[in-house]
């Protein structure tokens, strides 16, 4: 669905590269991009979305050459949920916010409202459609932004730090959304620091470090590479570390797996 070839990027000609020689291909597997702040994750996602343009290297999304498309044109293919919902929300009602992207691509109002309501039901905000979005809690604002992007029905959905400000119920709602999107054959990606959420929800994990890809593989395999993760200053999920300390042979990703292994 996405092919990235020899991608490098700097914010100015004199600045050091933020990304260097990135070569990646993305299929339908749910994919997490992890790494410390400054590793290049957000810049990479902005390049995918067309919010930044790289002079060196290329990005193909389906048959779209990202360099030749505007961010508005790419909005039909790829949706991005911002880390800070206050950077994304600006309409006066929850329903209007969820409809905005659909109306912006010239969809009829009746169909746009129907899709927006379905998305709001998915995130549990259908009882707050008349509210001003700024009166929502931070957790609810984040869910509203997710609904706004999900309503667009893009082939690719990227979440930037989806679990920030979410309690356990909110995380479970987002996990359910990820599963539903995968069932619809969407590519779901995230850039995230919540390793427990990665272990529970993402099939593939890519580790960025100093603008380069340090690890790329199945999530279980990536979290088994303790020494390489140390190099990137990334700690495995808590339950993974616990299983390792107890001498369990299997790289544990979830509490359920931990209990099963301990029961053997």
Automatic annotation (TrEMBL):
Protein's UniProt keywords contain Cell division: no
UniProt-recorded Gene Ontology molecular function terms: ATP binding; ATP hydrolysis activity; ATPase-coupled transmembrane transporter activity; cobalt ion transmembrane transporter activity
Keywords: ATP-binding, Cell membrane, Membrane, Nucleotide-binding, Translocase, Transport
Ranges where the ABC transporter domain occurs: 2-235
Coiled-coil stretches: none
Domain of life according to the entry: Bacteria
Membrane disposition: Peripheral membrane protein
SUPFAM superfamilies (alphabetical): P-loop containing nucleoside triphosphate hydrolases (SSF52540)
N-terminal signal peptide: none
Family: Belongs to the ABC transporter superfamily.
Protein name, as recorded: Cobalt ABC transporter ATP-binding protein
Native source organism of the sequence: Neobacillus mesonae
């Amino acid at each position: 669905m996405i092919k990235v070839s020899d991608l490098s990027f700097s914010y100015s000609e004199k600045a050091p590269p933020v990304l260097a020689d990135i070569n990646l291909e993305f299929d339908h597997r749910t994919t997490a991009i992890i790494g410390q702040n400054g590793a290049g994750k957000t810049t990479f996602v902005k390049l995918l979305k067309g919010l930044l343009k790289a002079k060196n290297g290329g990005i193909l999304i389906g048959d779209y050459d990202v360099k030749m498309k505007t961010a508005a044109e790419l909005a039909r293919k790829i949706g991005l949920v911002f880390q800070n919902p206050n950077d994304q929300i600006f309409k006066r009602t929850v329903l209007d916010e969820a409809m905005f992207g659909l109306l912006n691509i010239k969809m009829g109002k009746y169909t746009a409202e129907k899709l927006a309501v379905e998305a709001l039901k998915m995130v549990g905000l259908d009882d707050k459609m008349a509210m001003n979005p700024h009166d929502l809690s931070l957790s609810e604002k984040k869910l509203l932004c997710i609904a706004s992007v999900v309503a667009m029905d893009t082939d690719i959905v990227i979440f930037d730090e989806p679990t920030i400000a979410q309690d356990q119920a909110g995380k479970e709602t987002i996990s359910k959304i990820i599963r539903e999107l995968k069932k619809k054959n969407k590519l779901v990606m995230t850039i995230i620091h919540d390793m427990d959420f990665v272990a529970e929800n993402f099939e593939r994990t890519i580790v960025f470090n100093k603008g380069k890809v340090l690890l790329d593989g199945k999530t279980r395999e990536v979290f088994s590479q303790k020494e390489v993760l140390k190099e990137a200053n990334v700690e495995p999920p808590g339950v993974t570390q616990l299983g390792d300390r107890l001498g369990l042979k299997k790289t544990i990703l979830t509490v359920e797996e931990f209990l099963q292994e301990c029961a053997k």
